[in-house]
Amino acid sequence: MSIDIFPNRRLYQFGYCAVLARGVTPADLLARVGGEGLHAVALTRTETALIEALGEDIDEGDVPEAEFDRLRDSGVLAGDGPVLRAGTHNGWSFVIEPEGSYLAADDIAKSVSRETVALSLRDSESGSCWISYAEDGEILSSFDPLFPHNDYGTRPAVLDRLTGHVAAIHNGDRADAYMNAVRAIQQRLRCTVPQEADESRLLTIRIEGGY
User: Fewest CB atoms within 10 A around its CB: which of 23, 132, 205, 210?
Assistant: First the structure.
C-alpha cells in the first residue's frame, strides 16, 4: 500500500476503518459515531496502541505524557470496545479505528453524513476492502473496489460522476484497486489527509461494548 494516502497499512498494519466528514468538528464527529456523553481525551497513535495492547494492566509509566486520571475517568482504559481517534484537516474531519469494524456499519455512515457528506473506508486484516459514500443520511455508493460495478448504494453514479473512481480502478492493476479508488475519491472530494495529521494528540474515545 502506498503511503501517499491516509490512512494506510504502514501506519495500521492490521487494517483499519476510517470515516471522513466535511464541515464537522472532530468532537461532533465522535458524537455522531459514538453517541453523546462520552468523554474524550487527547492521545497519540502510539499511546492508543499501548492502551489497546496492555488493556487494564496499563499504568502511568506506560503513558507518561498522558493525564492518567483523565484517562481512567474517560473510559478509554475499559477492557473492551473500539478505540477511536478523531482529527481534522482542510475542512474535513476524520475518525480512525485500528483493526476493528465498528466504523464500517451502514448506520455510522448515515449518522455522520447528516446535513453533509461522508466517506467510509475499510481495509481489513484479511485483505478485504470496502468503500461507502453518503450524503445527508443516505448511502449513495457502497462497494468492494475489486467489483466496483456491484454497488449497493442508492445512486452510485453520483460518486463516479464526482470522482471518476471506476475508471481509476480499471486503469490500474487489480491488486491496487482499493488504493487507486481511495486516491481518486479523496483527491476529487478534496479530503486528502497527510499522515502527519494522525501523529499528534487527537481526541480519543472508547465505545465500551461496541463490538
Answer: 23
Retrieve residue 9's grid coordinates: 497499512
Residue 172 vs residues 59, 164, 185: alpha-carbon distances, Å: 47, 13, 15
Question: 32-44 burial string, b = 16+ CB within 10 Å, else e?
Answer: bbbeeebebbebb
pLDDT at 3: 58
Which run of H or of E encompasses 110? helix 106-112
pLDDT at 2 over 60: no
Give the dihedral sign, CA 174/175/178/184.
negative
pLDDT on residue 70: 81
C-alpha span between 146 and 6 (Å, rounded): 19
- Scored b (16 or more CB within 10 A) or e, 152-184 reads ebeebeebbebbebbebbeeeeeeebbbbbbbb
Euclidean distance between CA atoms 121 and 103, whole angstroms: 9
Q: How far is Cα 30 from Cα 44, in angstroms, rounded to an integer?
A: 16
Q: Which amino acid is at 141?
A: S
Q: Pairing mode, if any, of strands 138-143 and 129-135?
A: antiparallel
pLDDT digit string (tens) for 77-102? 876 889 999 999 999 999 999 988 99
